[in-house]
Amino acid sequence: MLLTITTSYSPATDLGYLLHKHPDRLQTFDLAYGRVHVFYPEAETDRCTAAMLLDVDSVGLVRRSYGQHRENFALAEYVNDRPYVASSFMSVAIAKVYSSALSGKCKDRPNLVQTPIHLSAKLSILPCRGGDKFLRRLFEPLGYSVISERHILDSSFQEWGESRYYTVTLERQCLLSEMLRHLYVLIPVLDDEKHYWVAEAEIEKLLRHGEDWLSEHPEQEVIVSRYLKHQRRLTRQALTQLGDVGEDEEDVRLCETEIEENIGLNEVRLTKTTEIIKESGAKRVLDLGCGEGKLLRKLMREKQFEEVVGMDVSHQSLKIAQQRLHYERLSEKEQERLAFIQGSLCYRDSRLSGYDAAAVIEVIEHLDKPRIAAFERVVFEYACPTMVVLTTPNEEYNVKFENLPAGKFRHRDHRFEWTRREFESWTADVAKRFGYSVMYYPIGEEDSVVGAPTQMAVFTQ
Ligand code: SAH
């Protein structure tokens, strides 16, 4: 994996001063994940290029960090794209090998450090989750002109189509330190993976390297969220520190989990769902709209369930679910019990047929009302499991959440929330039309006036 930085500033070889690396020498640095070489393929007065070559030791990496899991040998740990692409390894290399340049220090050329010069950075292979459009949405607002070339997956198998790998050139008149800070943050954002676990310290790094530009960036939210590996708590904290959260937006950001967390509602909901499905004697179970896999984890703990399938429309959620359940490290037998499928509950899907039970937990309120008719047929007519456990918020209960402003839903993606009457009328109608009987359970502490926070309907054929 190669990152080259070229300048046409005159004398161009001053790039050597800015990077603190002499143009005549090849220098090699040992980092935790492998070696980094810095050299100059060209060093003329009118044009100079510094190259940083990452030599990732993928075998050493697996042996060092995952030694304890080696009994569950997974080839993927050894054979993957990490040695060949720009990723968070590249950011670590920039911080370690170009550290003075990154912080804008240069004793020998103090004025040059403060002078915008013409720079061009080329990343030989950059994985871009979100494609060329997203790449441009990240760099163009910062003033770069972007040239990208997408690579096909395999030239011997044209029919496999395009890959997520691009060769990218970014050009701009700016300070070298600015460009390095942009690359440091945005390479892992595009890749959307991190080789290490993120914690609070990452917020500090993000804010330090994002100073001056991140708070104004139109894609600020995705940048922060991806950089912090989609961890909601850290993301919120970072956004607040960036001063982005205005009062009006505060309630938009309040997510359901937080609103409901005081009463531990999610846990109650998932425990009750597992209990009911278990009592039915079900062996093969679907979790429709499984999200990040909390219910799947509970279901997997019950040996009665021989097959557990999580389905969701969101690829990202499925990926997180797989990680949370340590899918890669499960034994072969456990892997056979568990499957993930991506799909939409608004389209007929033959993969969902023939199951004993399906859970649809806090999903229906995320569907647009006109799509509900399709959802009904997909679940109750085509998939038609013997039992369906479905939950949704009880809108009447919202008045009891002190941190939820009046008239707001519990989550910004909710399209509606039903009162108990609305829910009972919908469920009774569905049950009648598709040949199910239905029972209701209040979930969470019931209030004598507004009822329980969550409503659950259990449909049985
Ligand atoms: N059942 C989980 C997640 C609830 S959040 C839990 O209780 O924790 C709602 C989930 O529904 C999200 O993961 C969202 O991606 C998914 N979803 C929304 N629309 C969907 C659709 N049309 N098909 C399948 N899943 C959908």
CATH homologous superfamily grouping of the largest domain: Vaccinia Virus protein VP39
Pick out the low-confidence regions.
66-72, 244-254
Q: For this structure, what is the CATH class of the largest domain?
A: Alpha Beta
The molecules bound to the chains, other than polymers, are: S-adenosyl-L-homocysteine
Q: How do the strands of the widest beta sheet line up side by side?
A: 2-3-4-1-5-7-6
Tally of distinct domains: 2
> Approximately how much beta-strand content do the residues carry?
15-25%
State Rg.
26 Å
Q: According to CATH, what is the topology of the largest domain?
A: Rossmann fold
Number of DSSP-assigned strands: 14
What does the main sheet amount to?
7 strands, antiparallel
Label the structural class: alpha/beta
Mean pLDDT: 89
Number of helical regions? 18
Question: Which architecture of the largest domain would the CATH scheme give at its second level?
Answer: 3-Layer(aba) Sandwich
Helix content: 25-40%
The termini sit apart by 57 Å
So what's the overall shape? elongated
What would you note in describing this structure?
- This protein has 461 residues and is of the alpha/beta class.
- It has two domains: 2-196, c-terminal autoproteolytic domain of nucleoporin nup98 (2-Layer Sandwich), CATH 3.30.1610; 264-460, Vaccinia Virus protein VP39 (Rossmann fold).
- 36% of the residues lie in helices and 23% in strands.
- A seven-stranded antiparallel β-sheet has the order 2-3-4-1-5-7-6. It has a seven-stranded mixed β-sheet with strand order 10-9-8-11-12-14-13, with helices on both faces.
- The termini are far apart.
- The model is unreliable at 66-72 and 244-254 (pLDDT under 50).
- The protein binds S-adenosyl-L-homocysteine.
- S-adenosyl-L-homocysteine (SAH) is lined by residues 289-291, 294, 312-314, 317, 344-346, 361-363, 366-367.
